[in-house]
Design brief:
single chain, alpha+beta, 4-stranded antiparallel beta sheet, 7 strands
């Protein structure tokens, strides 16, 4: 009889500990949600790569031209560069069917940046492009959608 009472007490204590642990997790989850809801995050002009300081500490990323890196209480990512320093837009030259069917290209070095078609190629970093010696070589690559003059941004 004594062993049964000891076993029942141990099981009861264990159940109380488990219940306390579960309630603690629920409380911490609610506090975390409240913390995120209290922040005012600018999701319209900022592109968040990480939505926590822990994620930002372990994430490397590059921002596209016209954007700059930022870090705030909502996370980190890229935001539009202030209007005081406008970034010039490069003219996009889309490859024609005739250019795509070229059998040979002239060996002239006039570098262009061939931008990949996002429907065919999904890049994990900017730029989603490759530098080619000239527009002919860029357009003979079926993955290139258009090209801009000069080498690709780094």
């Amino acid at each position: 009889m004594k062993k049964i009472n000891e076993r029942a007490i141990i099981i009861s204590l264990f159940m109380i500990l488990v219940l306390f642990f579960i309630l603690s997790l629920i409380y911490l989850n609610l506090q975390s949600r409240k913390h995120y809801q209290d922040k005012e995050c600018d999701y319209d002009t900022k592109d968040y790569v990480g939505k926590s300081t822990e994620k930002c500490a372990t994430t490397k990323f590059l921002c596209a031209p016209g954007f700059e890196e930022f870090q705030d209480e909502c996370g980190c990512g890229c935001q539009i560069v202030s209007q005081l320093t406008p970034v010039p837009k490069l003219e996009e030259h889309f490859c024609t069917q005739e250019q795509r069917q070229a059998d040979v290209c002239i060996q002239l070095y006039k570098p262009v940046c061939g931008w990949f078609n996002p429907e065919k190629i999904q890049c994990i970093k900017y730029p989603c492009a490759n530098t080619y010696s000239n527009s002919c070589f860029a357009c003979t690559n079926p993955d290139v959608l258009y090209w801009t003059e000069g080498e690709c941004p780094k």
